[in-house]
Amino acid sequence: YEKKTAGAFAAALNMAAICAGRFSELGEILEDFSRNFGVSYQLYDDLRDDGKERKDALQSLIKEDLKREDLSFENLYQTYRLKTYESLKNLRDAPLKRLLFSVAGLVLKDV
Known about the structure:
Shape: elongated
Largest sheet: none
Number of helices: 5
Oligomer: single chain
Strand content: under 5%
């Protein structure tokens, strides 16, 4: 999941930070946010998918990959959803923090 949407989110946010001359200040936070947001989005999108077989296959792969039998697809989504917002806790730029919270909230239907 990290190699799907997360990379596109990271590229867009990193380019914006570079253009603003703030990559050294924001790069690590934006990278963490992008990774968690990208994975959250992919999980959210798959949860909305009606294909039960696909969900079952993905959940099986997740359990095998993470070596955790107790982890459900929904729990994994909630974990990454929370990590998305938590990754912004050290962001000192209040307008940027609000913007990223809003974008994540709209995409993940939290708003």
